Amino acid sequence: YQHNPSWSKEAVARKYGKRSFLNRKDVLSQSTFTRESRLKQHRLLVRYISTILLLVALVEFCVDSFPHRIRGFDDIERKVFTDVTYPYRLSEGIANEIRSSTYFNGLIALRHAADVASHIQEEVTFLSPYVGDTDKPESLAPRARVPSKGLCLLFRLMTLHPTGHELGVILQQRDNPYARCIILMYLRFLCPVTKLWKWFRKHVTDEEQVDIVGNGRKTMSAGAFARKLLTDGQFMGVYFPRLAQAQVADLKANLTELLAQYSNTPLLDSRKRNARRTPRNEERERGRVEKGGTRDE
């Protein structure tokens, strides 16, 4: 077109095609530019792929180096948190009450399960899910309920998705009974039924006393609380996931067998004797010996 001005663009297009407006020199330069740009794109693509592979290798190294924190879900599976309707196995009403609580909104700084456990040891003094709650059913309880610190910390623990290793470390803290009880509630909500007894069997005979409603009005042992979680479907208006009758029967059979073994241990017999050894009983025993075995009136 440039060498023969008599040709029109339409004539060149009809003879050589629509892309033949350029002379051969321009076509060669364009092809060279296209080849260089493609090489540059290939180099960038190779660089991106190598970077992605390096990141994948780094993540795998981190997973292998810290198994107890990243993939240490020995007994608690992550799939239980994927339920859309009830993300944490709590009813929507209770979850909304907790989210609207001022105390719960102040727990955002707690990033690990160990922080939650230390917070429980410092601030939780009873296990009732609501402040000022009693043993009345939920239908008779007042409508405007304030979630207790224990319930808020339990929900915060659910949002952190702790590993089985972290839960086991907290359950081994003998000086923190309320943390152990709240961890057992967490397990009752989220642990698979087939693994419940594995977690609970070491704690159903715990004799340390915990307060239920506050101010010492009602207390029970931590072991009795653990047994209540296994056999009952609710705790003071907070309902747990339902268990099949066969599963409940198996748990009760395991409880009966374990308690029968525990009641026959010499340690428990010595505790019973020490519990009966009061000053009045010792005086009565002394009177029986002095009177030749007759009952001292």
From TrEMBL:
Subcellular localization is given as: Nucleus
Supply the InterPro entries for this chain.
PRP38
Q: Does the keyword Zinc apply?
A: no
Entry keywords, A to Z: Membrane, mRNA processing, mRNA splicing, Nucleus, Spliceosome, Transmembrane, Transmembrane helix
Show the Pfam families listed in the entry.
PRP38
Q: Name one GO biological process term.
A: mRNA splicing, via spliceosome
Positions of the region Disordered? 269-297
The UniProt record lists the keyword Heme: no
Indicate where this protein is primarily found: nucleus
Q: Name one GO cellular component term.
A: spliceosomal complex
Indicate the transmembrane segments per the record. Answer: 44-61
- Source organism superkingdom: Eukaryota
Instruction: Specify residue ranges for compositional bias: Basic and acidic residues.
Output: 279-297
The record's family statement is: Belongs to the PRP38 family.
Q: What does this protein do?
A: Required for pre-mRNA splicing.
**Would you tell me the protein name for this molecule?**
Pre-mRNA-splicing factor 38
What's the source species for this entry?
Answer: Amorphochlora amoebiformis
